[in-house]
Amino acid sequence: MEERGTVVSMLSSQTGDSTQQSNEHVALLCIENPTLLRQIAEGLLQSDVKLAGDCAEVFTKVAETHPQLAAPYAEQLLVSIHHKHTRVRWESMHAVALISSSIPNRIFAVLDEIQERLFSDQSTIVKDYSILCLGKLASCGEAEAKVILPILKKGLLQLEEKFLSKLLTAMIGIAKVSPSLAAEVLANGYDYETHSKSSVQKAAKKLIKAAK
């Protein structure tokens, strides 16, 4: 337990660090010694919400460059996407999105939970990373793409305007792995090509280019 205390005590909330630097340092230590992630996974499920948020952030930092190291802790992260504290949810969802390509079958099995975060969560950031997760999952293959595309299209209709560019971007992977869906994806690009927001126009044009 001494080792666990040492690792946890280095996290931002435990050192009084108001920046991400302490958590980034811990993430580097975990990449060098992946067994330390077991202790971070334990911290993820602690009642201390600041500690849990730090641990979720460490998983995100690790998954950004070494998703295969974070993937074994998918179960803990999937529990945490429903956490009562917003930061824990968004960091956990970000980590889940980053590892989704490594374990598509596991993420596919909890697709209803990802959709719940997308359409029901009060946090914009959680929704953003839910879209990222769906996009990465859809890019894994044609079977996944055929299931994910209707969800993204539903998002275009039901979610706020601020999510449009991310939803269109998430469709780019579908165009690359599923020729049979290319025409449908292309149509969505054309629908938003002249949108009033430049970010949406940009995403739509990238989608059109990928689907042609």
TrEMBL record:
It comes from the Bacteria. SUPFAM superfamilies: ARM repeat. InterPro entries: ARM-like, ARM-type_fold. This is Uncharacterized protein. It comes from Paenibacillus sp. BIHB 4019. The lineage of its organism: Bacteria, Bacillati, Bacillota, Bacilli, Bacillales.
